Amino acid sequence: AGKPTVVGIIAILTRFLEDFHEYNRDIKHKKPDRDEVFGTYHSLASKHLLPFDEVYRGKPIFDIRNDDSVFMSLAAYREHLLAPTLREAFSHATNPDKLFVGAVVQNCFGLEYTCRTGVQVVGKDAHGNPRTKVSDAPPDVNGIDEFCNDPDYSKYCESGQIRALYVNETESVGPASARYLASKLWGGETYFVQSDSHLQFAQNWDTSYIKELRLAKSYPKVILSAYPPGFGGKFGDESFGTKLCSCEFSTSDVEFHIIRINNGMGYTVGNMPPNPRQIPFMAAGFFFAHSEWLVDVPFDPLLPWCFMGEEIALSMRSWTSGWKMYAPRHNLIAHQYRPGRMGLPKFWETVGRTYGRPGPGFNTKLQSKVLKRVKNIVGYPAASKEKIEAEGDGDVLDSIDYYGLGNEDTYEAYLEFAGIDVINEKCTALTWCNQGLVE
Length: 439
Known about the structure:
The protein has a single domain, classed as Alpha-Beta Complex (Spore Coat Polysaccharide Biosynthesis Protein SpsA, Chain A).
C-alpha cells in the first residue's frame, strides 16, 4: 500500500464525492424520501470513508511533527470571505511558513445548472412581515484562486501550504460532514485548529494560542475553545475571552431537543488568572488542540445534514477521551455572525433543491434521523439502541463505538462535571466554570 499522501487521501475523498454527485444529479426529479437519501449517503460512506478510517484507527495518518506547525481546518460553504480570511490568517501569523490550511470549498460552480442566491429580504408586506425572494446568481467566487493569485500570498500556495478539496454544493450536507472532510487534509502538523471561514485574526495569533495551550494545567491533552466576538469589536490583547459554561435543551421545532451550548461569564481585568481555566464544552466554530486529538477523537463521517448537535457530541467525546477543554483568556480571532437578513445561501436550501423539495423542510427531516445518532451518544432515553432500531433507523448507529465516547473518563462523570440532566432535559448553572475555579 505504501505510505499515505495528502494527494492520495484527496483522491479517496473525491471518489466518494463523485459517486454522491452522480446519485444527486440523477435523483432530483424522482423526489426520493428521507430513508433512501440517507441510505445512499450511508452506503457510499461505508464504501469509501469508513474503510480508510479503519486502517488508521488508534494512530495518526502521518507522523506528528514537533516543529510547532499549525493546520487550520476550514469548511467553506459558498463563502465570499474565504480569500480575506486566508489573507488575515497568514498576514497576522508569527510563523506563516508553518501555517497549513485544509479548505473544503463547497461552491455552486454554475456548470450543470444556474446558481441561486440565499433567501433575500426585499421589503415588507401589508402586515409588516418580511417579503423574500430567491434569485438567479453567478457562479460562486473561488476563494482559493483569489488568494493564490494574490502576489503577496502566492508563495504559500506554491509551497503546498494550501490544500483544497472542491465540493459541488449539491454534496454540501452540513458543517459536521464538511469538517470531517477537512480533517482528512491534515498532513502531520503539530497543532490542529478548526474554525469558520469568515474570520479576522489578531497579530501573532498562532504563537499566542500555542503559548496559551501550554499554560493549561492538563497540557498536552488540552483543547482551547470559544465563541469569538463579532466583526467590528475589539479582539486581541484588549479583548478578554468568555467561557462556554452553560447549555440548554433546544425547544425549536427543527432542533429536536438537542443540547445547545452558550457563553457564560468572561475573564476580566480584575479576575485574570495566570493560566486558562477549564470549561465543560467546546465550540465547533473554533478550537485549537495538539493534533494527537485527531487520533483520540476522530471526526464522524456519519453526521450529514446536521447543523446542531456536533458541539455536544465533540465535547462529550473529547472529555471522556481524557481531553480537557479550556477557555482562552483573550480573543485572538473575530467571527462574522450572519443574521438571515444578509440573504446568504444556506446549505439546507441546497439540500431542498437537490432533492426536488425547495425550502428547509427536507433537510429538517434528514437531520431528525441523523440526530438520533448524537442523542444516542449523549444518552437521551428516547434514543436508546433498542428504540432507534424499533423505529427502523438502526443504520444511524453504525460504527458508533469508534465515533462515540472515549474510555479515559466516564459518561456519568462528564454529566456531573457539565451539569447536564439528560433524563429531565435540564442544564445547571455552573459556578465553578463562571468563576474559573478549575485549572
